[in-house]
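Late entry, evening session. Most of the bench is empty. Finally got around to the prediction I had been postponing all week. Sequence below, unchanged from the version circulated by S.P.
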Amino acid sequence: MIEDVVKELGHLSLGTRLRRIGEALQAQTQSVLAAHGFEQPAAYFPLLAALDRLGPLSVGELSQAVGVSQPVITRSLRGLEDDGLIGSQTSEDDRRVRRIALSLKGRGLVERAQREAWPAIEVAVAQACAGLSGDLLTQLAGLENALIEAPLLQRVRA
């Protein structure tokens, strides 16, 4: 077996390691969503959740709410709009600002996800994180191992 250089570099490659874990979690979340009949990318759901929770937002506000750069938000919004899940209007206060809101279809999707998929994902991720102890690097190794030993979909089905 080849050496996991990122893991061995410890704190030096922490950003890469966190990104790797995030990508694994997102891919496994996508599998759970697909098993529940959701076709949208997992990356859309934090945006949908923010709009559901906070109401109409500008691109900048949405970027702040989910902690993702504005260019990434803009690209995702195109897909959400193409899927009919959001709509936008120019702000009455400032004609340069576009306010993004869930469409009726988007509200329905969020309500279904809140009922059917999000609780299962929450429990599965909590299970994968349960019992982690030690310093940060040890906990990250434990989480990585837990996700390999029993991916989220397997945890949801159990």
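Two things to note before I forget:
Residues 14-35 form the longest helix (22 residues).
Strands lie at 57-58, 86-90, 98-102.
Will write this up properly tomorrow.
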